[in-house]
Amino acid sequence: MAIRYEHIKTCKQTGARIGKLHTPHGTIDTPIFMPVGTLATVKTMTPEELADIGSQIILSNTYHLWLRPGSDIIREAGGLHKFMNWDRPILTDSGGFQVFSLSDRRKIEEEGVHFRSHLDGSKLFLSPEKAMDIQHDLGSDIMMAFDECPPFPAEKKYVKDSIERTSRWAERCLNHHVKEGHDKNQALFGIVQGGEYSDLRAQSAKELVAMDFPGYSIGGLSVGEPKPIMYRVLEETVPFLPEDKPRYLMGVGSPDALIEGVIRGIDMFDCVLPTRIARNGTTMTSKGRVVVKNKKFERDFTPLDPGCDCYTCRNYTKAYLRHLFKTDEILGLRLTTYHNLYFLLKLMEDIRTAILNDQLMDFKEAFFESYGLNVENPKNF
Amino acid sequence: MAIRYEHIKTCKQTGARIGKLHTPHGTIDTPIFMPVGTLATVKTMTPEELADIGSQIILSNTYHLWLRPGSDIIREAGGLHKFMNWDRPILTDSGGFQVFSLSDRRKIEEEGVHFRSHLDGSKLFLSPEKAMDIQHDLGSDIMMAFDECPPFPAEKKYVKDSIERTSRWAERCLNHHVKEGHDKNQALFGIVQGGEYSDLRAQSAKELVAMDFPGYSIGGLSVGEPKPIMYRVLEETVPFLPEDKPRYLMGVGSPDALIEGVIRGIDMFDCVLPTRIARNGTTMTSKGRVVVKNKKFERDFTPLDPGCDCYTCRNYTKAYLRHLFKTDEILGLRLTTYHNLYFLLKLMEDIRTAILNDQLMDFKEAFFESYGLNVENPKNF
């Protein structure tokens, strides 16, 4: 078994849990947020900076690396860890989400998906077996089964057909993975789908759990549905997942949803949100969002977040950050990215401490109040 | 006196010199290369990274900072050092070079230069006094007098009128600087001009030296003239400059010109070349230029320069750098910038060691051979 989940404690206030996930490249404290390094780099950051801010694991994208530089090149480099100079754990997605995002240029068949490259329009084919082969080339610690991620909203009939195919594909992924002998060093997760439909989520979870994966992802959320629907689906899905395996909620990275997800039993999260908004000059602070380009910061010689002890906040003012963004300087993107990732990783650390102290509900209330989430129509993150 | 030049040794093989330049923010070993931080940031780099690679002093641009964020904002921030978090010496240019580059939108008068902003076309006026005021706001350790930099080629009559005005402007700069009382903490350099004309260079140098500046710049070179002309002008100009003051050759950063400049008595250099070409994927190595985007590096899992011990070369392969450039990833720009600056700063360190050992000519020959400069029509850097 490539990975092992060790349960440490359950919060008496919320039922949230802390644990340790042991992987071939080291142990992760859960619940955890995973920075996204789509193209074998977490945008603007070095691996040393990621380690400095406490990144225990990162995510990278199968589809994008398959196209560029090509999974054969990464295999020849000695795997993704060596290629990108990151020696801690890596999780890779299956490519499914990206392929299904290309809705106008793909055709789904039982065998797999025919589609055209978003780069040059060339014809490509991705199947459960192919998604495994690529991830074997990458050598990630945690791999994802090839699934279909239905859009929101979607007709129930469509979603039912889809989850049943996703289950068949999951079995093919598992068979191919085990047959290829990579299951000792790479852990394959099944992905629960089912849209907003309670019974389909239950069906999907049960079918996957019957295949005994070393971990389970919950996909098809954070795709445009209102947050209350996401939270309801989590409440209806997690009970079907085994206690002794890690649970990964895909594509979630707003502070409120991280806290709500943990309360509902989630151990792992990823999202491009903190890095993407950082490159647009939007930052997350203990008092909510700060958009550094704002004119009002022109002569503000205080840090982004006076309560934050990250490199950016210890050394630079909002006036300087604003100047860097107004002049399109790369250092600006670096400093806000660094800060946002630090903020979310510190949030997860605070969440783990709150669970340890049986105070996660208290922590949530204080955080929501400070972040400005306890108002009518709060901003989305 | 804000700065003091201390002569250490003259190379018996070449007549080149090493020295120490004492400034309010620390002592610099000369000859030195100064990375350029146009807009209060050396593009892609943090101050800590600049220090790591041995940057002893950086340059920043008066004209650009005057426009963005505004010199008043930098003054209110506590000066440029504090604004950008750099506590080592800073040299600022006078804005003259940038203003005169806007050849189609400026009008030169005795009082100063009327021109239009390159950003929004707004009307601006820069004079010797204004250039001093801005640099006082910035608080740089070394300031430049406001000069005119004639283009190459230029008619002798034009250049003669120009250097005489530049001398009158230099005197106004000096008077304003001393009157404002900043001469204790900020050293003002005069800039020798004169195009390719030996007698005009001599005239300009003599007029400025008579004003007793604490250092002298040589401007109007590396503006398109062939290198042999630049080297001849240096040979004809340096003898007019005092032995006990630093000499700064503006805008030069190719390895061959750095070595040739040092041999001709230059102590300080700056240029955007290493950082600009780095962002285009072109690097300087001990074996000459390497363009990382080249297809031939697709599966090259060796460092950029196997003989280099910089962060980039110790941790990444050409295949990875190529991938980052092909995918427009910011980390690529960071890694090549870091390497190129490291390469030039290491070159200057090697030059200083060669002078100490009276071996600069031997060093030059070995370097030129290795870098590929001893061939017919070598590449330009």
UniProtKB/TrEMBL annotation, chains A, B:
<keyword id="KW-0819">tRNA processing</keyword>
<dbReference type="InterPro" id="IPR002616">
    <property type="entry name" value="tRNA_ribo_trans-like"/>
</dbReference>
<dbReference type="Pfam" id="PF01702">
    <property type="entry name" value="TGT"/>
</dbReference>
<keyword id="KW-0671">Queuosine biosynthesis</keyword>
<comment type="similarity">
    <text>Belongs to the queuine tRNA-ribosyltransferase family.</text>
</comment>
<feature type="binding site">
    <location>
        <position position="313"/>
    </location>
    <ligand>
        <name>Zn(2+)</name>
    </ligand>
</feature>
<dbReference type="GO" id="GO:0016757">
    <property type="term" value="F:glycosyltransferase activity"/>
</dbReference>
<comment type="pathway">
    <text>tRNA modification; tRNA-queuosine biosynthesis.</text>
</comment>
<feature type="domain" description="tRNA-guanine(15) transglycosylase-like">
    <location>
        <begin position="14"/>
        <end position="371"/>
    </location>
</feature>
<feature type="binding site">
    <location>
        <position position="220"/>
    </location>
    <ligand>
        <name>substrate</name>
    </ligand>
</feature>
<dbReference type="InterPro" id="IPR036511">
    <property type="entry name" value="TGT-like_sf"/>
</dbReference>
<feature type="binding site">
    <location>
        <position position="339"/>
    </location>
    <ligand>
        <name>Zn(2+)</name>
    </ligand>
</feature>
<feature type="active site" description="Proton acceptor">
    <location>
        <position position="93"/>
    </location>
</feature>
<feature type="region of interest" description="RNA binding">
    <location>
        <begin position="251"/>
        <end position="257"/>
    </location>
</feature>
<dbReference type="InterPro" id="IPR004803">
    <property type="entry name" value="TGT"/>
</dbReference>
<feature type="binding site">
    <location>
        <begin position="93"/>
        <end position="97"/>
    </location>
    <ligand>
        <name>substrate</name>
    </ligand>
</feature>
<feature type="active site" description="Nucleophile">
    <location>
        <position position="270"/>
    </location>
</feature>
<feature type="binding site">
    <location>
        <position position="147"/>
    </location>
    <ligand>
        <name>substrate</name>
    </ligand>
</feature>
<feature type="binding site">
    <location>
        <position position="308"/>
    </location>
    <ligand>
        <name>Zn(2+)</name>
    </ligand>
</feature>
<comment type="function">
    <text>Catalyzes the base-exchange of a guanine (G) residue with the queuine precursor 7-aminomethyl-7-deazaguanine (PreQ1) at position 34 (anticodon wobble position) in tRNAs with GU(N) anticodons (tRNA-Asp, -Asn, -His and -Tyr). Catalysis occurs through a double-displacement mechanism. The nucleophile active site attacks the C1' of nucleotide 34 to detach the guanine base from the RNA, forming a covalent enzyme-RNA intermediate. The proton acceptor active site deprotonates the incoming PreQ1, allowing a nucleophilic attack on the C1' of the ribose to form the product.</text>
</comment>
<feature type="region of interest" description="RNA binding; important for wobble base 34 recognition">
    <location>
        <begin position="275"/>
        <end position="279"/>
    </location>
</feature>
<keyword id="KW-0862">Zinc</keyword>
<keyword id="KW-0479">Metal-binding</keyword>
<comment type="subunit">
    <text>Homodimer. Within each dimer, one monomer is responsible for RNA recognition and catalysis, while the other monomer binds to the replacement base PreQ1.</text>
</comment>
<feature type="binding site">
    <location>
        <position position="193"/>
    </location>
    <ligand>
        <name>substrate</name>
    </ligand>
</feature>
<keyword id="KW-0328">Glycosyltransferase</keyword>
<protein>
    <recommendedName>
        <fullName>Queuine tRNA-ribosyltransferase</fullName>
        <ecNumber>2.4.2.29</ecNumber>
    </recommendedName>
</protein>
<dbReference type="InterPro" id="IPR050076">
    <property type="entry name" value="ArchSynthase1/Queuine_TRR"/>
</dbReference>
<feature type="binding site">
    <location>
        <position position="310"/>
    </location>
    <ligand>
        <name>Zn(2+)</name>
    </ligand>
</feature>
<keyword id="KW-0808">Transferase</keyword>
